[in-house]
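As a next step, the fold was encoded as tokens, giving this record:
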Amino acid sequence: MQYAVRGEVVIRADAMAAEGRKIIYTNIGNPHAVGQKPITYYRQVLSLCDLPPECGVDNPTVASGFPADVVDRARELRAAIGDAGTGAYTNSQGIGKFRNDVAQFITARDGHISLPSNIFLTNGASSAIEFVLTGLIGGNRDAIMIPIPQYPIYSAIISRLGARQVGYYLDEDKGWAITERELEQRRTAAVERDGLDIRALTLINPGNPTGQVLSREDLEVICKFCAKHDIVLLADEVYQRNIYDPTKEFVSAKKVAMETPGCENLQLVSFHSTSKGLIGECGRRGGYMELHNIDPYVQTQLYKLASSGLCSGVAGQVMTSLMVTPPAPTDESYGLFQKEESDIFESLKRRANSLVKGLNDIDGMTCTPAEGAMYAFPKVELPAKAFDEAAAHDQTPDTLYALSLLEETGICVVPASGFGQKEGRVGFRTTFLPPEDELNKAIVEFKRHHEMFCEKYA
């Protein structure tokens, strides 16, 4: 099993950091680790949920330190948690009131009813994905269709569970588009040639590592394909707030499934997380999955899997409730909350644009626009001798390139081969999460290193 975002390049970066070298970590979407400030409202409510009542919500001086709506919200959440507080186990599916908050959020977002009984609160989206894949996979002839490039948690879990992955390739020349022909060809080869049983298909929207935002038409193609072949659709939608192209909008897979003829019986599991968006609270491990048209018996088995871990972290459950029910416009906290969110979003948008432009200005690099998510995924042209050097060290060319970039500049990226790519392509994934001044310096260093690397292996 391999997990590229914590792989060879990152291990070397950590060793260099331990020796005192300054490292710019752009390998993983971990916003607070590279300088994004927490949103005040979330931290205030969470602190009052954790504090003993006499030190927090019931303290006579609480109003001098916290806005009234924060205190009211903390009391509401504490009542839902119960007298045992945030240090006790909860229901394995998550606290009922918080699941109701998520269901109301989904209902308002999509215009179609969501039921709290179909919501599982989880330790980020990652544990939810693992629950579902564990429930789907029963043997080595089972297969999961995943996009190529993909976020490597999918390939890692599929490999660990002993199943097969069937990659469907996104078209880079068309902005990482998905085509029905590609889906059908990959399925036919897997089923008829290789004798595999395709259990599910994963989509990532907005894309990771590719940054594209799927159109409604793209989603209809995927939903109809899965419905036609009785394939469970797994919709990874953790970046739904991270859309920077004003001509694009997030449309959920569930909304499309509910409104597309022929998809009435589509089995769908959707994932969301507090680690991304504008929150970036990765360490809280908050998230949820929603089951749609999943057989009650299967849902019971998923509950058993969740029960084996007792429950997800309570802080993450609180954060998930806060994510889906932010302060209202009439609340005292609303002004600051809106400013902090807007500042984060606008900065991410600027960074996305400046990074992509900077990479495209480098001779030998091309990068599609980062319409959403937190990453750029450039393609890099390398001299033939670099391929020979990589082969001599039993490395992929982009691993050789990423290690060289790290040693020369201190910038830690992930080789594109860790996400999957067409044969012959070389590249890397980088976040645009570091502060703007630091990212601008990194763009200059990307150019300097590339010129140096190409000269070295010319």
Remarks:
- The chain has a mean pLDDT of 93.
- The radius of gyration is 23 Å.
- Residues 334-360 form the longest helix (27 residues).
